[in-house]
Amino acid sequence: MMQHDKPQPLLRVENLAVSFDGPAGRVRAVNGVNLSIYPGQTLGVVGESGCGKSVSALSTLQLVPTPPGRFESGSIWWNPTPGSPGSSPESSTKSSETSSETGSDPVSLSQPVDLLKYSEKQMQKIRGNDIAMIFQEPMTSLNPVYTVGEQILEAILLHQKVSRSQAVDIAVQALKDVGIADAASRLRVYPHQMSGGMRQRVMIAMALACQPKLLLADEPTTALDVTIQAQILELLRKLQAERGMSIMLITHDLGVVAENADVVAVMYAGRVVEYGSVHDVFENPLHPYTQGLFDSMPILGSSKHRLRTIEGNVPNPADLPSGCPFHPRCRSYAGDQRCTASDPPLHEITPDFREHWASCWHVDGHEQGKATRPDVDVVTQIHA
Amino acid sequence: MGLAWIGLVAFFAIFGPLLASSHPILWKTADGVSSPMLRHLTAADVIILAMALVAAILLCLRSLHFGKRILIFAGVGVVISILSLILIKPPQAIVYSQYREALAAEEAQWAVMTIVPYSPTDRFREMEETRFLSPSGKHWMGTTGDGEDLCSRMIHACRIALAVGFLSTGIAICIGVIIGGLMGYFSGWVDLLGMRLVEVFSAIPTIFLLITFVAFYGRNLYLMMIILGLTGWVGYAVFTRAEFLKLREQDFVQAAIACGLPLRSVLFKHMLPNGVTPVLVSASFGVAGAILTESTLSFLGLGLVEEPSWGQMLNQARGQGGVFTWWMAIYPGFAIFFTVFAYNLVGEALRDAIDPQLKKAAQL
To answer: Rounded to 5, what percent of chain A is helix, strand, coil?
Structure first.
């Protein structure tokens, strides 16, 4: 399954741990997260509020405020020129038994760089230019005192060596690309004169004006109406297909993931508990938490029975239960020593499912599975 | 109403030399028509007049970018200042009586005088007793113990009052916003250090410091402004810090950082305009406070000697000649009162405009 002509991931998060110092002591928001995103791929990151989704994304751009936040371990490898399949034979360390815990430098042709080691100055070149981010709340993501045009222009002029009039052309084109009619006159409009959907479009235009290779979308549709949600997601899909960029789509909406993502990472209490292609995860959810998520989702047309909820509450990250953090709420938990004693590592579940990882002692095949870095390079064109 | 009064005071401050001067605006002598008043303008007068003109022109040109306006204003200011400091050399020895004598002797056929035809330091030496005259048609607000026209002095004092208010507050805002902004943005140990600095500075008694400096370095208006600025920034720093702490968590600031904007741009372009409003409110109270402090010092006799100032006139009303001259107390007194009152009104109005909640609460 780990062929030699496998492409390099654009972004690889390795064993990331981020903690925050608060009045209640140190809180680990992210605890050993491993993720990979390949060129052109959409990675959906799902999980409840506070499970570390956003912190993982913010860490990528070093936007986690430090202090109170601190990076405890891990690295975020950024490879802006990943080899295309077949073109670059690589000395593969991945096929060997590399533990995700070691975080050793991957040996590859194009040198990936560790974004966590970058200085603020270096990060400024990455931000907006290579990796852009759009936020959850379009109503507050634009500066109220400047016109939309000024804000887009500022980003363009910062990253591209163009004159102001050229930048205006780029901005107009960017607004047209996101489906804003009458783009030229919209440049002179203040954010409060626009609707939420419009503002999110502007945010996307701003993020994409510099042709980033990776877009971090932190719940981009949560604050929008359902119809607008669909439009925005459709727009993201269209732009992704046109530009071949990768998207990390953070959401708590499984429907959005099913529609848009190629690969899913389910997070719980700062960990990735299940990882695989959208198809595998949705067809065969392995982890009890993922199964619980699906059970708690209403299905249109079948309103006969009550929805099943996941019992209990999200654990306080300052005081996680011992062993598997999910075991107090877990359906499969039957007083096993294993569950309370140690946290199950993310193992590849073999042989029935390929490229599908889960961290649960109860999943068949978990013990035989290898602790490889989760890594799915499929770009399934489910939405083509 | 507050704004109208401040506008009036500013008008007097800018056009003081054109409104009250013993030098005729135009007069015709044997040498032909000339303007002694223009010839006697000092470099400071010219700078202020020119800057006012530039500001008015820039205000009329609506299309210009705000930053560009500031840049043009500052640039023109520097050029004009240098030019006028080099070029403009008013005559050193000023004999005010020459105009009146010339007119009386009919050496000059006609002269156009200013509205108040007396300079603030014109002591009418050639005339009979002019000291302590109560207000009359000739001297609208009476004269001082040195025989100077009070109305003229009042007009010229506007400039000092405004200059002290604006410059010291300006210095204080610059320091306060920068320190407060850095404190709020970085928080952590920068904040800790900044807060200690704020505490140290808020413990300094401004008036005593001013008196000490006057004792050691003499009477100097600029020194006074700088000291007022250096001790007055703590309030602005605390306000800005609070605003920036709030703004730092805002999405658009995060978005700006995520766009890769440099720190300077994030701080001053995206955060400052959103957080500066409470600073502006407290600044208008600060200007009032600075004017009051200057008046206090002048009243205590620690202000300027030659230049007219409202507080100094108040002081003169009290002592000289052993009589209480009511006109010298009332006019400057009311001027100080109205100006401080006006600034407070403006501050109040600003606060209401920014925070309508507060207005509602006050009405209940």
So the answer is: 30, 20, 50
CB contact (8 A) between residue B255 and residue A136? no
Phi, psi of A274 (to 5 degrees): -150, 145
Determine whether domain B150-363 maps to CATH 1.10.10.10: no
Radius of gyration in angstroms for the set of CA atoms belonging to chain A, rounded to a whole number = 21
Q: By CB neighbour count within 10 A (0-12 exposed, 13-18 middle, 19+ buried), where does A39 fall? A: buried
Nearest CA to A249 out of A270, A290, A278, A269 is that of A278
Task: Tell me whether A90 touches chain B (CB under 8 Å).
Answer: no
For residue A285, give the nearest of A350, A379, A368, A363 by alpha carbon.
Answer: A363
Lowest mean pLDDT of A245-254, A323-332, B203-212, name the range. A323-332
* Beta-carbon separation of B274 and A125 below 8 A: no
What is the DSSP secondary structure assignment for residue B269, as one 8-state letter? Answer: I
The two structure tokens encoding residue B133? 């005259």
Residue numbers in A near B258 (CB within 8 A) = 61, 63, 127-128, 132-133, 135
Q: Which of A129, A134, A140 is the closest to B250 by Cβ?
A: A140
- How much is the pTM? 0.72
- Helical spans, DSSP H, in chain A: 53-60, 120-126, 148-159, 164-177, 183-186, 196-208, 226-243, 254-260, 278-283, 288-295, 337-341
Å between A21 CA and nearest CA of chain B: 12
Residues forming a β-bridge with B112: B26
- Cα A20–A23–A24 angle (5° rounding)? 80
The sign one gets for the Cα dihedral A69, A376, A204, A217 is negative
pLDDT digits (tens, 9 = 90+) for A187-196: 888 888 888 8
Which residue of B250, B261, B263 is in closest CB contact with A158? B261
Q: Is the distance from CB of B152 to CB of B120 less than 8 angstroms?
A: yes
Tokens of B126: 């050639």
Rounded-to-5 percentages of helix, strand, coil across chain B: 70, 5, 25
- Residue corresponding to tokens 């194009």: A110
Determine, for residues A63 and B258 on separate chains, whether the beta-carbon distance falls below 8 Å: yes
Could you tell me if B248 and B184 are in contact, meaning their C-beta atoms sit under 8 angstroms apart? yes
Whole-complex ipTM: 0.70
H/E/C letters for each residue in B207-262? HHHHHHHHHHHCCCHHHHHHHHHHHHHHHHHHHHHHHHHHHHCCHHHHHHHHCCCC
Q: Which tokens hold the place of B318? A: 């009290």
What size, in residues, is chain A? 384
Q: Which of A20-29, B244-253, B338-347 has the highest average model confidence (pLDDT)?
A: B338-347
Sheet with B110-112, side-by-side order of all strands = B32-34, B26-29, B110-112
Q: Minimal Cα–Cα distance from A60 to chain B, Å?
A: 10
Q: Say if residue B364's pLDDT is above 70.
A: no
Q: Answer yes or no: do A141 and B265 touch at CB < 8 A.
A: no
